Amino acid sequence: MKRKFEAKQRIEKLRREIDKFRYEYHVLDKPEISDEVYDSLMRELRGLEEKYPELKSPDSPSQRIGGKPLAKFEKVRHAHRQWSLDDAFSFAELKAWEEKISRILYKSSAFLPPTLHRGSSKPSFKLEYCAEIKIDGLKVILTYKKGILAQAATRGDGIIGENVTEQIKTIQSIPLRLNKKMDATVVGEVWMKKSDLEKINKEREYENLPPFANSRNVAAGSIRQLNPKITAKRKLSSYIYDIDGIEEGFPETQMEELDLLKKLGFKVNEHHKLCKNLEEVEKFFRSWEGRRNKQEYGIDGVVVKVNRKKLQDTLGYTGKSPRWAVAYKFIPEKVTTVVEDIKVQVGRTGALTPVAHLQPVQVAGSTVSRATLHNEDEIKRFDIRVGDTIVIHKAGDVIPEVIEVLKNLRTGKERKFHMPTRCPICGGGVRRETIKTGKKGEESAAHYCQNKKCFAVEKENIIHFVSRKGFDIEGLGEKIVEQLMSEGLISNFADIFELEVGDLEPLERFAEKSADNLVKSIEKAKKIEFPKFLFALGIRHVGEETAVLISHNMEHLAHNMEHITHNKIKNLEDIIKNFPKISIDDWLKIKGIGEKSAKSLAEWFNNKENIELLKKMLKHGVKIIFPVLRVTSYELRDKSFVLTGELETMARDEAKEKIRELGGDISSSVSKNTDYVVVGKNPGSKYDKARELGVKILSEKEFFDMLKKMSIFPDKF
């Protein structure tokens, strides 16, 4: 017993000392001992814990690495909603944000007393801001119970994330035990040093593997490794910047919150500043614009937060973002490169899209070698030629986009591009479709392959069919689809349901387990809701909203058509029997269905080959579930709505659901049949179309006032 008691004391001392050294090295960046000494202490600790396993604890430094590989990541619901930030790209936009929040605070009773500018009768507020550099990493949410790390999760969709606790434990800058025994939920970014990325890429180059594009992608990929030991090898770091929940109550300011996070043992980025006004924020922002690339981590802007917590609480949230914070983003990086070739891709609808093949170039942290040129008219507008030197940037720091052609650098050897008259995949004829897009009858720029059996079209159709918004078949990605088509195992989406393990096992990339998993995924996908089923078929002009609209009007459709069998459509067999009987005029009876959609639907279901595909799916057990529409009242029955712009009071999907609960319909495009167009912030062309057609336009406030009168909203709206 004495030896065990002594071992316990020694273990506790070792843990304290090792954790102290860990904090100095990985949080303060001030190592006090050599790696050899640290490793020696860790070996002694592991030895004692192995000898006395009952003395092991989850917060021991020895438990950072050792979790077993996971079969898959568990989904977890966040205790606190994870928001995204609104963006500002100029000082003018930043000022507009300040004016908006000042108006909200002025109308509220929970604000600091207003002061009057000399010569002005309008009140203003002495707002202070906490400016923090915006780390370009992977967002993680850490939950501590009684001071011990209990769960780590990715952001996911803001409501549901993935449990990555074992992976996060391997990150030395994240404490397993807080300096205080308390419950807390904190938020931060996980990132990788650029110098470590260089080392990894050199190793990958030696092994003839493709290099990783940027440190953010590696960080995200490392956290999603099922085996924590792989994550540990990547040497990730972290910065924690926010508290979602805390047992002892929140500090009074954002600056004090960052200080508290430091005291609890977290690594907090030192580059944050209290700014007395937006001019000071702008100065801080400009100071980082030129030196952001000199840091070991990616920086894509400055996060500006109202400093006082009481004011944050008063301002609250929109449907997707906090009103009290904004991401002041750097202008996307621009670089020059050369157009080596222009090739054409063929999409799901047969549309031909020209793509520029570029001399590989680094832009905004990743290597770019392709950029879409959209269509022939876009190429003519820029006068882009093969051999041209062009300027590209990443639109939203994501999509490579051509913004300029440097014509003065031309040598005379550049070649003009011409859209092909034959499909580059199947050799079928190509036709440019003429579609009137406005009063002047402007012509659509789209070129289409006329061969309905084109390999590229079939491939894209199948990829669309199995996508998340369609049948959502896990494990059936683009490369696997192409492989199965090339091997002759599938030629259309109905063939998928005939696949068996024995068909897949002989193929490259497949072993017994992966073949079995794919077949199980296909079996699971056979039961599908009608809107997803209809969307998956890939009928032109029938997107998610149109599919939902048809689903909600199925009963109405059946009852108003004498040729529908039994006045009801309840399964795939009924669809096969009855949908070919539905004419264009019948489809148009559904409010919100336009002529293009009606024509496409009638043509698709009157195509015998398509009906044969549905029969094959029925034979192999595909079952359709018709969702029951939950209508709380019929006050908006037969009213068609189009939403455009950003809604601030709630998420757009939530607003759509409220309309449906009242019996209304949602459309994705404005027509003479549209009853209302709801206009949010930064509306698009749908707003102009509504004005042109004389459709009733509702501001966001008018829209929500309408819903309030119908008792669909809780009091807070």
Identify the overall geometry: globular
Number of helices: 25
> What is the mean predicted local confidence, pLDDT?
83
Main pleated sheet: 7 strands, antiparallel
Query: Total strand count, please?
Result: 28
Poorly predicted regions are: 114-123, 436-442, 712-717
Structural classification: alpha+beta
Task: Give the fraction of residues assigned to helices.
Answer: 25-40%
**End-to-end separation:** 65 Å
Q: What is the rounded Rg? A: 30 Å
Query: What percentage of amino acids are in beta strands?
Result: 15-25%
Give a structural overview.
Helices cover 35% and strands 21% of the residues. By secondary structure, the protein is an alpha+beta fold. The strands form 8 sheets. Strands 14, 15, 16, 18, 19, 21 and 22 form a 7-stranded antiparallel beta sheet that branches. A 5-stranded mixed beta sheet has the order 2-13-12-5-11. A 4-stranded antiparallel beta sheet has the order 7-6-9-10. It is globular. The chain starts with a helix and ends in an 8-residue tail after the last helix.
Task: Give the secondary structure arrangement, pairings included.
Blueprint: H1 2-27, H2 35-51, E1 75-77, E2 87-88, H3 91-107, E3 115-116, E4 123-124, E5 129-135, E6 138-145, E7 148-154, E8 160-162, H4 165-168, E9 184-191, H5 194-206, H6 215-223, H7 228-233, E10 237-246, H8 254-264, E11 272-275, H9 278-289, E12 299-306, H10 309-315, E13 325-329, E14 334-346, E15 351-363, E16 366-372, H11 376-382, E17 385-386, E18 389-395, E19 399-405, E20 415-416, E21 430-432, E22 447-449, H12 455-466, H13 478-486, H14 501-504, H15 512-525, E23 527-529, H16 530-536, H17 544-552, H18 554-559, H19 572-578, H20 584-588, H21 595-605, H22 608-619, E24 623-625, E25 640-644, H23 652-661, E26 665-666, E27 676-679, H24 685-693, E28 696-699, H25 700-709
Parallel strand pairs: 2-13, 23-24, 25-26, 25-27, 27-28
Antiparallel strand pairs: 1-8, 3-4, 5-11, 5-12, 6-7, 6-9, 9-10, 12-13, 14-15, 14-18, 15-16, 15-22, 17-20, 18-19, 21-22
